[in-house]
Every structure is written in structure tokens, then in C-alpha cells.
Design brief:
The structure is a homodimer. By secondary structure, the first copy, chain A, is α+β, with helices and mostly antiparallel strands. The first copy, chain A, folds into three domains: 92 residues, Nucleic acid-binding proteins (OB fold (Dihydrolipoamide Acetyltransferase, E2P)), CATH 2.40.50; 262 residues, BirA Bifunctional Protein, domain 2; 123 residues, GAD-like domain (Gyrase A, domain 2, 2-Layer Sandwich). The first copy, chain A, has 17 helices and 23 strands. In chain A, the strands form five sheets. Chain A has an eight-stranded mixed sheet with strand order 6-9-10-22-21-20-17-11, sandwiched between helices. In chain A, strands 1-2-3-5-4 form a five-stranded mixed barrel. Chain A is globular and about 90 Å long. Chains A and B meet through strand 1, helix 3, helix 4, strand 6 and strand 7 of A and strand 1, helix 3, helix 4, strand 6 and strand 7 of B. Strand 23 of chain A pairs antiparallel with strand 23 of chain B, so a sheet runs across the interface.
């Protein structure tokens, strides 16, 4: 061992000890006859002191060091003259008697500090240096700890972690697969799994009862900001359970994580139906750290000659507490915000509640004060509040616009504190959603999702209104997990396929494999999957999942550090019996 | 929940309890007015009793059940009339009052029993039914437990599990890569990792200090019996360590596993140099469950006119205790065994030690009794033993042949008990081995392996004799893990590349990426990787790693259950801008 202690653990009580440390040079300060070096390792930083009078040779050596040199030092723990209260080892320093340079270092392309001067691109190219920064490494330490605690909890609950294969077959419905040409089976391809959905259901057929896996999944999609082509799921499935059992089990897991990692006692999670989430928040993943619920104003504001409202299919408002102080310019900013093409509202109506309780709105010429007062009351608004109203001819679209406005107001009013957590279950998702593109009902979750038993009669009469035994766990407006109870009854499954527009032949072709397995005795089962990357990001208070991934890919799916993907040899292509066939 | 207890937990103390159970029908026995059904779940089997007189309706229902039907039953725990001492629940049965068929089952293609009538192929095709067999499921339960205990131990030792990417780049030197065409980067390919070797070394450069990962690795090789295209490694790396630190750390991990999983207190592991392993066992992974060491007989048996021996570069014998009783036919069988092309010996010389101590050999006409007696002494042979001797003109090849013979004798004499474990470290591997094919020295481990410091001068004079800081953990003749201390010094690395025959340009092209990273301050580091599949197989006493993998592939790399790999759509190929280009 090159050391007998680490750079994070020496304290005032260790004074006088002979120690051996190893680590990297964080900083060098030369002060005449004294030179101070901050030595860094994973565990912290310890100050090394070199005194010209005490040991001129070692002092000279110290003065020739550079940033990020790798050192081994021997010396004595001494009390510092000027203590640093900001670091755990700030009371002591090492009076160095022996200095060995284990490796020199060329100057890094950016500073290895909390506030680095390196931009995103260069930090990704030299990710192994970026990872030296404590703020980055901490995220990966957190990730390790969360994954370990997930395993500990699930192991204690009798779950078995079963590894499912990475080289599988192309799956029906869903995103695009990554594929892998098979050399031994020329002309054939493996696919990388988008999720182990079918395999975990097969494990239930196999009687495995409680399965989980922390597993890499792959989707070849065009990458948005917070997507990675490979990502990690906490994938879970249970047999002989109903929805209530799953919710309780995984609420318990989340409670365990919050307690052990964040020291937070999570209250019993509220449950919100999908219908209420859409009605009050315009989103199936409402950020409930703050209230600002939607209030529908159709009855109240129609019929006064304001044609925008009179013709609207939906009018809804939110009450921004204390925001009556907003200037005209700020409100214009909000109007521009909702009119951006990504949001697409036509305009924004506002109403200030003045100090005297009167309401001053942007549509005063259509509404008398008594109507505005009624609105104030309905909105639960008080003096000093700002009411913001959107309307539109498509209720769902307008709600989504209002949801964006609500989140923006939450940001502006500082209501979305990263250190505050608000968790809930969103339940009773619809079974189907209409696809304009496909001109048919599509499965909202996936085609094996079970309808709520009491809604089964509606399958014949009004399938679009059928609710599913499907659920999402939402934390701070982020869907961290979701799943469903699966259909285990072959006849019901057949009916669901019919509603989705599959002929029995098509259903057999697409899903026959799983349906055949079910013939051998499938238990009632259900499960869910968490996105580990998102879960860790939330706990770390990160804006992007990228920062909790050791070696992430960029928006072009490239690992700029490794230089992947890359061109491969003709020999390799020949062996695989494939050809590159560029279109232009 | 469909149950309030499982099929494995009810005991005589539970008599009188009302219970709800769910599971699969294992067996039905109809005995006049009584029908007995064995209900199975992951936790065990519980007998259900149906009495025509007590409840005719439920009795009739029970008589219409079939094998593998999925049931939910309610009833009372009662003491059995005829107890079954062979099962934990054998004292009780459930007098069933309510029976619900949760799912019917068609007759499975093989019996779901310990001794199934299903052959390998059909069991793999219906792996989800094969996994219902307790003997198969137990292996996966063991795998879960081992992986969890590995994580627990390493977490306690301060290791961080860091996920490295699956979509990486093609690596130099090594086996064939699986590749993944990139749609977003047409004409370019990712590779699946053969191991995270480079990434874990980068994590050391990043200061991660103690890394591990239980991780899927991929090799596109022609598959031998015990190889899978995807396999799982326990991959580990540490900084600021020497070989001794690594050996101690992972000996500790193995000790933890043996203790927690098998209840075995592992003694301090013996260490054997590679040279001794080759000398005494003719193998770098000796099975030390039994002794039967090689004894070199060159001095003793040369010069008596037996030209086979006189011209041999190596003559070595093993002493098979008590095998003098072998018949001529049995010995002929051994001769045939060593002459098989896979082994390739020219013949076998044997010598029996008779009850009176005289030695009777197959080469009596060349050797007088006093020479044979000297040999007996050298071999430590006693009355009743059988001495088996091989010779050849290539010492290494002959040793390997003798090793095969030794293992075969171990099998025949029952010395390779699967319930006995003999673990050791093999150390001091050579840095290089000569490749006839390439006509150059090749790295035995990999080109980043550090030479033993005391052998560094030999790099200039006799590189072939340089020993490496490389080590394997061997259990029962299986290499379960191996690794090395890495080179962190750029100049030494340069010299190693030269000896391997790389010009500086070639070295830069092949390994430049890692060498550049090292310029920023690489710590001394080293590590190792265990094969999890092999480790579990050993603990489970399996002949093949396949049985501890949930969904393994066959020798053609196919998953016959999923039907992977398969043909993909032309659309997919077009999007990827590749073409299948079959050679015939």
C-alpha cells in the first residue's frame, strides 16, 4: 500500500502521528521559506507543509511540483498555524519529511475545481479529468449508494435479481432498436433490449414471484436534452399481486431511499388520478412542490362578449401568490413565454388583485368588477395576487399550455426548491389514447396493461374511457417510475388486441411468443420500472441526467472521450457479411 | 394480494389457521373420495386436500384440474394423516373450502420435476417452464445471493460501483468485438465491451480509488462448451496498491462468500508460482483438491536404451494411489485417452507397485528392478499404487498432456468431489509468451501489465524470462478470477511496447488514448476480474455455466426461446445505411 491514511481523515487528535499519504496536487502556494501543497484524493484534501529551514532538499523538490502531479509523502501530523474551518482536515497539516513523485502530469486543459473554466465539450473529451472534480464524483458516489440501497431493500423483501440477456430479438411496438449483426448467423441480427419487459413477464410465468434487476436499456431515438441512448432502469415485477400491493412495496422502497440517503421521512404518498392531474395541473407528472392549481372559469367568464373566451373550449386560471407586483414588462414576458411555438398559446389574460381588493384585469372592458370579484373568490385570490388565464379551442392542449405557465411561475417565484421533495402516485391512467397519425386507439402504457376490473364492461361500449391499472411515481414534476398490472387472461388480452386494431393473425405475429408462454399457466402479475438516472439526478439536484453518468454520450450519440462510434475494418464487415451503404 | 402465506412456510404450529395460498398444480392424486393436490410456488410445495363428503362442489372442481394450472385456494391448515418427512411442509395439509382457477394450463412439453423427461433442446426452447424446476431456480437464487454478497463486501470496503457504457469503441488486441451500427453516425459502429479494462483504468486516473462493477461483457468467439457470447464479470480496480494489497482484499471477498453462502471457513489461500504450477501440475489452474503432483524422471530414466525416453525433452510421472488394481483394459483405456488428438501423447508408460513392493512396468525390458525401485522411491509410491509416465520432445506440451491424465485419474479415483473446495493464488505469471503464429512475444495478460520490479533489468537481456505482477485465483482447477498490477510509468510502458514489437507510431495508434490519459497523472493501480458465471457454477456444483444463466444461448449463439438473432426489416437496414452481403 502506498499510504497508511487518506487525505480526508486526519484531525487534531492525530497530531504527532507519522503518516504516509498519496494523492494529486490540487494547489501549490509558495510563501518565501514555506511552501504549502494541497494534496487531494477521493476522500478529501490535506495540506502539506514544506519548510526550507527544516528540510531544504524536500522543500526544493516541492517547489518543482506541478498541478495534478501524483505524490507519495511521509511526514508528521502537526497543528496548523492558521486553521481552515471550511474543510474537515483544516486543523492540521503534514510536515513532510519524504516526497516521492509517483507520476508527473502535464497541465490539464481545465482547472480541477468546483467552478471549472472548462466548457461542456472539453470536459466531456477529458471526462477522466472532469471526474476528478468533487462535485462530479459526488454524483457517482450517490448513484452507487442509491443502487446499493435499492438492492438491499429489495433483497430484504425477497426479490431476486435476475440478469436478462443483452443480445435479444427485435421487439414489436416501441422505439427503434439498436441491432447487432450475428457473425455466426449471417444475415441475422440481435437487438439490444429497450427494456426486459417480456423477459420479466416470462420470469413470472416461471414462478420467480419477485424479480428485479438494475439493468441497462437501449433506445435508438433522436436524442433530446435529457435522453441517453443507453440508460439504466430499476426493473421490477411481482406475482399474485394487485395494484395496491405494488404501490405499497415501492412506496416502501422510495421511503427507504429517502430515509437512508437524504435523511428524510417521506410521508404516505398522496394518490392522484390521471384525470385530476390533468384537470388541476395539466400534466400527468404534476410538480406538487407548490400548489397553484388550475381553476376552471368557463361558467364564470363566458357570455360577456369577449369572443376569445366565448368561443373557447377551455378557460382556466392560476393564482400566483404575491405576484401583483409584476410590472407590465414582466407580464409581457409571460405573454411571450406562452406564445413561443413550443407552447403555442394565442395570448394571456391577467388580473391583478390590488391592495384594496379590487381587481384590475387586461380585459376590463368586457368584465364588470362584480364578475371579476366573483372570479377572485373562485380563484381564492387575495390582495397582492396575480391571476393568469389561458383559453383555447382544445381543452387538453390549453391545459398543457397552462401547465407550462404554472411551472414557469413556480420557477420565477422560487417555489421549485431542489432541496424540497414532493412525491405522489398518479393512478388510473387511461388504457388508450387516440393517435391522429395512426387513426386508431393506441395503448397508452403497453398492450399487456390490465384495465381496471370495474371498467371492463366499457371495453365494448366506450373503450376510450376505460381506465388502466397503471401508475406512475412522480417526484417534483418528474416521472421517476411507472408500471402496471398485466393482463394474465388470454381472452381479455385478445379483446384488448382487437380494440387496438390487430387481427388475431397480427396479434399472433407480434405478441404470439408471450401469449403462447401464458398458455402454460401465467399467474396474475404486475410491476414497474424506475429510471435510475432520473432518480439519482433528482436526489443530486441536477438539471441533466448526464451528470450522474460516468461516461455519457452527447446529443449525437457520441462518446467524445472514447471516440465512439467509429469506422471499423473492412475485415470485420466481411466477417459479419454486411456492407456500409451510405445514401449520399 | 392473492395469498396470505406461501407454499413453503406452514408447519404443525399453524394448525387451525385460515390461509389463502396461490401457486401451480404440481401433482394430483385421486384416491376415491379424497383428492390431493400438491400446490407449488417459489417457496415450496403444500398439499391441498379435497374431501368429497366435506365439500362435494370443491371436490369436483379439484378433479377437473390439470398439471400447472394456477390456483388460489382458501382453507384450514390441518395435521396430515400420513406425514411426509422429506418436505418442510410435510406435517400439514390444507383442507380447501374455496378454489379459484386463476389460469388454466395446457400440458407442458416436459415434466416440471427434478428428473425431467425433457432434453436440452426442448428445455431451452421452453426455458420459462424449465425455470419452474426447483433445481434450476435454485442456481439463480444462488447467483442473486452471491452477487449481492459481493456488493455488500465491496461496499463495506469503500468500493464504488460505477456503470461503464455498453456502447463503446472497438478495442485493440483481444477477441472479436460485437458491433452496433450507428444510425445517427452512418458508416460508423459502436462495439460492445469485451471488458471495461480501459474504462476502469481511466476511473483510476480520475481518482476513483476503489472501483467495481458486476457487468456484462461480450466476445464474438466461436463458442466452446463453456463459453457464452455474453457473460458477467465482477470487475475491480484499486489505486495506490501493490500486488499484496489486491491479493488480500480479494482473498477477503472470497472468504466472505464461502462463509456466508457455503458456511465454509476458507483457510489462508496458498500461493503457487506459475513456474511451480506448470512444473507440478502442468497447468496454470491446477486442481489442488488432490495431490498427485508431477515428478520429473529425466535423471532417473534416461540412458537405459529406451529410445523414447532417451530422446525425450521431458519425462514425468504421477502416482495414482491404490490404482495398481487397474486391469490391463483400464490401462489401455488410459493409453487411448492420452493418445486422443485433443491430448496428443504418443503413448503411456505405466508401473504397478505390487503387494510385495516390487515394481512391474510396461518397460521392464529396459529397466532393472533397482532402477524401478529408485523410481518408486522418488515417486513416493507404495504397494498398491500405479505410476503413470509420459514423455515427449516438448516439455511444455508433455506437461499439459500429463495434466489431462492427472485430471482424468482424479475423476476415475473420485478425488474431484464437487462439495470440496481447494482455492489458491497462482502468481508470478510470465510477462510474455512466444507466438509461433505471429513470430513474436505476445503479452500473456495484457500490454498494461507491470513486470515484477526485480525483473525489470531482464527486459533488456532476456525479456522472455521476465515475470509479471499478475495473478489468478484458482478454485478446483477453474480460473475464477485474474488480474494484474498495471504499468503507470510512461517510459516503462514504452519499453514494453517495444518488446511486443510495436513502433512508437503503432503503440500510439493502438493505445495512445490511454497513454495520453496517463500523462495527466496516473496513480499506481491494479485490479482483477472474476467470472461470475464460473464462480456461481462452482458454488452450485454445475458442469456448465449455462445452468446458472436465466436465458443462455446455445453453441450457435442462438437464444432458441426468443428466436434471436433474427432477420430484421429492410426499413431498419435502410435507416442504418447498411446492407446484408451474404458471401454464398
Amino acid at each position: 500500500m502506498y499510504r497508511n491514511t487518506t487525505c480526508g481523515e486526519l484531525r487534531i487528535s492525530d497530531i504527532g502521528k507519522q503518516v504516509v499519504l498519496a494523492g494529486w496536487v490540487q494547489r501549490i502556494r509558495k510563501m518565501g521559506g514555506m511552501t504549502f501543497v494541497d494534496l487531494r484524493d477521493r476522500y478529501g484534501i490535506t495540506q502539506l507543509a514544506f519548510n526550507q529551514e527544516v528540510n531544504a532538499e524536500v522543500f526544493d523538490k516541492a517547489n518543482s511540483l506541478g498541478r495534478e502531479y501524483v505524490l507519495q509523502v511521509k511526514g508528521t501530523v502537526e497543528e496548523r498555524y492558521s486553521k481552515n474551518k471550511n474543510m474537515p482536515t483544516g486543523d492540521i497539516e503534514i510536515s513532510v519529511t519524504e516526497l516521492t513523485v509517483l507520476n508527473e502530469a502535464v497541465t490539464p486543459p481545465f482547472t480541477i475545481e468546483e467552478d471549472t473554466d472548462g466548457g461542456d465539450d472539453i470536459r466531456m473529451k477529458y471526462r477522466y479529468l472532469d471526474l476528478r472534480r468533487e462535485c462530479v464524483r459526488k454524483n457517482l458516489e450517490l448513484r452507487h449508494k442509491m443502487a446499493f440501497e435499492v438492492r438491499r431493500y429489495l433483497d430484504e423483501q425477497g426479490f431476486l435479481e435476475v440478469e436478462t440477456p443483452v443480445l435479444v430479438n427485435s421487439t414489436p411496438e416501441g422505439a427503434r432498436d439498436f441491432v447487432v449483426p450475428s457473425r455466426m448467423n449471417p444475415g441475422q441480427f440481435y437487438a439490444l433490449p429497450q427494456s426486459p419487459q417480456i423477459l420479466k413477464q416470462l420470469l413470472m410465468v416461471a414462478g420467480f414471484d419477485r424479480y428485479f434487476q438494475i439493468v441497462k436499456c437501449f433506445r435508438d431515438e433522436d436524442l433530446r436534452a435529457d435522453r441517453q441512448p443507453e440508460f439504466t432502469q430499476i426493473d421490477c415485477e411481482m406475482s399474485f399481486v394487485e395494484q395496491e400491493d405494488i404501490l405499497n412495496m415501492f412506496e416502501g422502497m422510495s421511503r427507504h431511499l429517502f430515509k437512508v440517503i437524504k435523511g428524510i421521512d417521506l410521508p404516505k404518498l398522496p394518490r392522484m388520478t390521471w384525470a385530476d392531474a390533468m384537470k388541476y395541473y395539466g400534466s400527468d407528472k404534476p410538480d406538487t412542490r407548490f400548489d397553484m392549481r388550475f381553476v376552471e372559469l368557463m361558467d364564470l367568464l363566458k357570455g360577456y362578449g369577449f369572443s376569445v373566451f366565448d368561443n373557447a373550449a377551455y378557460i382556466g386560471g392560476i393564482c400566483a401568490k404575491g405576484a401583483a407586483v409584476y410590472t407590465r414588462k414582466q407580464i409581457d414576458g409571460l405573454t411571450e413565454f406562452v406564445k413561443r411555438p413550443q407552447i403555442g398559446a394565442k395570448g394571456l389574460v391577467y388580473a391583478r388583485v390590488e391592495a384594496d381588493g379590487t381587481v384590475k384585469s387586461s380585459v376590463d372592458k368586457f368584465y364588470a368588477q362584480d364578475v371579476l370579484q366573483k372570479m377572485k373568490e373562485t380563484m381564492n385570490a387575495e390582495a397582492g395576487d396575480l391571476i393568469l388565464i389561458l383559453s383555447g379551442d382544445d381543452a387538453m392542449k390549453t391545459r398543457k399550455q397552462l401547465s407550462e405557465l404554472r411551472l414557469e411561475m413556480g420557477n420565477q417565484l422560487g417555489l421549485r426548491d431542489k432541496n424540497k421533495y414532493s412525491c405522489l402516485w398518479v393512478i388510473d391512467f387511461p388504457m388508450y389514447e387516440w393517435s391522429d397519425e395512426e387513426q386508431r386507439l393506441m395503448a397508452m402504457h403497453h398492450p399487456f396493461t390490465s384495465p381496471k376490473p370495474e371498467d371492463i364492461p366499457l371495453l365494448d361500449t366506450d373503450p376510450a374511457s376505460v381506465r388502466a391499472n397503471a401508475y406512475d411515481m412522480v417526484i417534483n414534476g418528474v416521472e421517476v417510475g411507472g408500471g402496471s398490472i398485466r393482463i394474465h387472461d388470454a381472452q381479455l388480452q385478445q379483446k384488448i388486441f382487437e380494440i387496438l386494431g390487430f387481427t388475431p393473425e397480427q396479434a399472433q405475429k407480434k405478441f404470439g411468443f408471450l401469449m403462447n408462454a401464458f398458455k402454460y399457466g401465467a399467474p396474475p402479475h404486475g410491476g414497474l420500472a424506475y429510471g435510475l438516472d432520473r432518480f439519482v439526478s433528482l436526489f443530486a439536484g441536477l438539471d441533466s441526467i448526464r451528470d450522474c453518468i460516468a461516461f455519457p454520450k452527447n446529443n449525437q450519440g457520441r462518446d467524445v472521450m472514447l471516440g465512439a462510434p467509429g469506422v471499423i475494418d473492412q475485415d470485420q464487415l466481411d466477417e459479419l457479411q454486411i456492407k456500409v451503404d451510405l445514401k449520399n
